[in-house]
Specification:
Glycoprotein, Type 4 Pilin, 2 domains, alpha+beta
Length: 194
């Protein structure tokens, strides 16, 4: 299923730069080396402008770390570097990546559109409004919040299962999306990988 993309697309060079930046930043951070400054003035406008991204690390076909931002608050290049390092060293679900693992990691970057609030009437209407394979979804219940990128639809193609797993990730009962009116936002991504 084709995913909806942010309005202005990254060039092939921009994608290659971000993947290389993520890889070199992870390698240096894991090995305790100092990170060089990012020369923002030498980058394209899209990399200099504020952008939000998630960086996903896999080892084989297994998730090894995934961290990102839902809202743009810093230059996209800086955002990708920060979240690449965080995915390797700070994802609470995993131990920090070790140096021997580095050659076995694969990197995926997802650049997000601005999340938009989704108005819905009830659980049935929410199911009707979601677009599997296209929409990333954010659920919020008070101070609890969780998201699944659009790529998660590949593992959870049934909307009911998708929302139940997302509620569980948020730390609530899996059926909370059915029994309570939650704040729901959707977004799309431009995804690329090594």
């Amino acid at each position: 299923m084709k995913m909806s993309q942010p309005v202005s697309m990254l060039s092939k060079q921009d994608k290659a730069y971000l993947l290389d930046l993520a890889r070199s930043s992870i390698d240096r951070a894991v090995c305790g080396q100092r990170l060089p400054e990012i020369d923002l003035y030498g980058l394209s406008d899209i990399l200099r402008n504020d952008g939000a991204a998630f960086v996903t690390l896999t080892k084989g076909k297994l998730l090894r770390g995934c961290i990102g931002a839902l809202e743009a608050y810093q230059p996209l290049a800086v955002d990708v570097r920060e979240h690449a390092i965080a995915a390797a060293l700070e994802d609470y679900r995993f131990s920090p990546v070790s140096a021997p693992e580095l050659p076995h990691l694969s990197i995926e970057i997802s650049r997000l559109t601005q999340p938009k609030s989704l108005d819905y009437l009830d659980a049935g209407n929410l199911i009707e409004l979601l677009r599997p394979g296209i929409d990333g979804v954010v659920l919020a219940d008070g101070s609890r919040r969780a998201t699944f990128l659009p790529q998660v639809w590949e593992q959870l193609p049934n909307p009911e299962d998708f929302l139940s797993h997302l509620c569980h990730k948020m730390g609530t009962k899996p059926d909370t999306w059915c029994t309570k009116h939650l704040a729901v936002s959707i977004y799309q991504v431009e995804e690329f990988h090594e």
